[in-house]
Write a structure and sequence with these properties.
By secondary structure, the protein is mainly alpha-helical. The protein has one domain. About 50% of the residues lie in helices and about 5% in strands.
C-alpha cells in the first residue's frame, strides 16, 4: 500500500498533544477519520515516541525516502560499461 505524505499525516494529527507515543498517533488519526494510507504510514514509523509534529514529519519523510530507494530499478552489472572502451582493473 502507498504511504501518505507528511502533510496528510500532519492534518490527521491536528489537535494531538505532544509528546506522544506511536500508538497514540494511530489512535488519534483513526478517531479523526484518517484515510488508510495515513494509518499505514503511522504503523510503519520506526520511532515509538515523538516530541513534536516536526519529529513525526521527519519520520514520515524517512519512510518516503526508503520507499523511493527500494523502488529504483536495478541496473545490470555490465550496463554502465561502454563498448570498445579501455578499462583498467
Amino acid at each position: 500500500m502507498a504511504h501518505a505524505n507528511p502533510v496528510e499525516v500532519e492534518k490527521s494529527l491536528k489537535g494531538i498533544n505532544y509528546p506522544a507515543k506511536k500508538k497514540d498517533l494511530i489512535t488519534h488519526a483513526q478517531q479523526h477519520g484518517a484515510n488508510p494510507e495515513v494509518i499505514e504510514t503511522l504503523r510503519d514509523l520506526r520511532e515509538e515516541n515523538f516530541n513534536s509534529p516536526v519529529d513525526v514529519s521527519k519520520a514520515v519523510g524517512e519512510i518516503d525516502r526508503q520507499q523511493k530507494q527500494n523502488s529504483r530499478p536495478l541496473a545490470r552489472k555490465d550496463q554502465h560499461l561502454q563498448p570498445n572502451a579501455e578499462y583498467r582493473l
